[in-house]
Design a protein that fits this description.
mainly alpha, 11 helices, 2 strands
């Protein structure tokens, strides 16, 4: 243990730099702006990562309860999963802190489960079995080091149109149906909140304008979905439509 360290120093250094640790706990300068921004950014980042482990669980539960994926566009989830995966691989290649991208791993797993449920409840059992296998091979190929960093960067440029395609498919599906079906309002709300936090953490911790633009776009499109959920009547499992009050 270095001079001036406390028993909690190793844990604090997981969140902030040595310089900020010393300013806070040795100089008692608790109002240093750059260090405060770092603390807020790290706190939000890890908060998003922890929260992401449950962000799509409401959607999964809603599907299981209804035993239906009515109103959900499977192509939208495919595109969303591709965007998550490309972003995860890009961040790994660039060596960015886990607090700035860790949620993509958890949300990828949950999206895979949703796609499997879409296959299952539409009677395509082979799709539900083969899809996670094919996806695992794809992830391994992207992250095992065979893909050059410049390719990862170029792929990141296509994340924005992929995110647009993904969200717009679901937005159109809602417009066409006149309801949001089994789309979970809680999931969309959590995704919207996560995007707000990610805009802040990406700007302050990575400065990567490609990632920042992607999160800003996702924020706007999730906001539109949130508006649709509030605006359209509720669609229940029995097929009846109940006007939101």
């Amino acid at each position: 243990m270095a001079a001036g360290d406390f028993f909690f120093t190793p844990w604090v250094l997981l969140l902030i730099t040595r310089e900020c640790h010393d300013k806070f706990f040795l100089d008692y300068n608790f109002f240093d702006v750059p260090c405060l921004k770092l603390v807020i950014s790290k706190g939000l980042g890890y908060g998003v990562v922890v929260g992401s482990a449950m962000v799509k669980v409401p959607q999964i539960v809603k599907i299981l309860k209804a035993r239906s994926t009515e109103g959900l566009n499977i192509l939208s989830f495919y595109a969303e999963l591709l965007a998550y995966t490309l972003t995860l691989a890009y961040n790994l290649e660039k060596g960015f802190p886990f607090s700035t991208w860790g949620e993509t791993s958890f949300m990828s797993i949950q999206t895979v489960i949703i796609i499997m449920l879409c296959y299952y409840y539409n009677g395509v059992i082979t799709g539900a079995i083969l899809f996670p296998i094919a996806y695992s091979v794809f992830v391994y190929t992207l992250t095992c080091g065979v893909v050059p960093v410049d390719i990862h960067t170029k792929l990141q440029f296509v994340v924005m149109p992929i995110v647009s395609f993904s969200k717009c498919l679901q937005i159109y599906e809602n417009l066409r149906n006149g309801h949001t079906g089994q789309l979970s309002g809680l999931m969309v709300f959590l995704l919207f909140g996560g995007c707000i936090a990610r805009v802040f953490t990406t700007y302050h911790e990575t400065g990567d304008m490609i990632l920042l633009a992607n999160f800003l776009l996702a924020l706007v499109l999730n906001g539109i979905l949130l508006f649709q959920i509030a605006y359209y009547p509720d669609k229940h499992a029995d097929g009846k439509v109940k006007k939101s009050e």
